[in-house]
Amino acid sequence: REATTTLTVTGMTCASCTGRVERTLTGQPGVLNASVNLASETATVRYLPGATDPAQLARAVTESGYPTRPSE
Ligand code: 9UX
């Protein structure tokens, strides 16, 4: 019904970057909530698995200018 994924997001240098990334993520279909932490370079995303997936979310963030990689 609902899933959570964590992405590593690089290239964020100020606090407003986290807001940008959060808006990018919440603008994606199927995203319910996104919380981005500047210090730990992580984005925690709650989403509907039928509507999107972690690879697609990572691609959207990378294309917005903040490179991502799978988080361990
Ligand atoms: Mo701050 Mo981030 O001036 O793209 S918003 S560096």
UniProtKB/TrEMBL annotation:
It is found in: Cell membrane; Endomembrane system. Residues 3-69 form the HMA domain. Belongs to the cation transport ATPase (P-type) (TC 3.A.3) family. Type IB subfamily. This is P-type Cu(2+) transporter. It comes from Roseovarius pacificus. The lineage of its organism: Bacteria, Pseudomonadati, Pseudomonadota, Alphaproteobacteria, Rhodobacterales. The chain holds residues 68 to 139 of 820 of the full protein.
